[in-house]
Design brief:
Elements lengths: L2 E5 L3 E3 L4 E8 L8 E6 L6 E7 L2 E4 L7 E6 L4 E6 L8 E9 L2 E4 L3 E6 L1
Parallel strand pairs: 2-11
Antiparallel strand pairs: 1-3, 3-8, 4-5, 4-9, 5-6, 7-8, 9-10, 9-11
């Protein structure tokens, strides 16, 4: 059974940093494309960053302010976010796109105060 558990969300001031973690169980991390998405109140879920092998892609809104990476030994996907803005406030979700299956975690809340 594949399970994704996010953590690391918090209340931070604008300009601050956070590192989100996604602990994966049931499959080795990095075998399939992985990503971070977010959903703000009243808005659709949107892509933040993806990691497919060594290829990284970032949403324009986060480019230059975040880094996605994985640790195979810890079987964990990370998202380091810097220079956070109030507009980054959202629930952040971890995702794995395996053949025939799309896995999501429960999300972790990030709140950025101005």
């Amino acid at each position: 059974q594949v399970r994704l558990v996010e953590s690391g969300g918090d209340l931070v001031q604008a300009g601050g940093s956070l590192r989100l973690s996604c602990l994966v169980s049931g499959m080795p991390v990095s075998i399939y494309p992985m990503g971070w998405y977010r959903q703000a109140p009243g808005k659709a879920r949107e892509l933040v960053a993806t990691l497919d092998g060594v290829t990284r892609n970032y949403a324009d809104s986060m480019a230059g302010r975040c880094t996605i990476y994985s640790d195979n030994a810890e079987n964990t996907l990370y998202l380091q976010m810097n220079s956070l803005e109030p507009e980054d406030t959202a629930v952040y979700y971890c995702n794995i796109r395996a053949p025939g299956s799309n896995y999501w975690g429960q999300g972790t809340q990030v709140t950025v105060s101005s």
